[in-house]
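Structure tokens please, single chain.
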Amino acid sequence: MFRTGHRTDPSPSLDLPAPRATVESNAVEPPAVPTVERPAARPAERSEAILGRGVAFDGTLRFTGTLRIEGSFKGQILSGDSLVIGDGADVNADISCGSINVTGEARGSLTATRAIELHAPASVTADVTTPSLIVGEGVLLDGTVRMRGAPARAVRHDRPTRPPEDSSA
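Here you go.
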């Protein structure tokens, strides 16, 4: 039935070695390319915006993230985040933000839920309401200041006592 040594298949028989699973090479690997890690992208609600020099805006402004004003603004500003009024800026507004940092000129009212910082050469003519206020040397501040937030704690300053003076001597 089966005969050995006799082939009826017309295709030639090739005795090839079995394929190897790994590849060997004498090629030199290129040096590793340094990678630069980039900071994680900020969420969209943490945007930063600038109202630049030479820009004038009248109206109501609402924003999230940080807004830097370097131009002129008149109206109302509302945000739970950070407002920066830069050197050279002219702002006449009722402002209510999480934090306010002023180096320029501000008039109206400034209300912050976290803090207000005034740095020279700031000129502020406003009613200021905040739980934390920093006023740098050289700042002009004219208005009322209300510190709202955690009540101030009484601090006791002990003074050294002197012995009573002898009046008979």
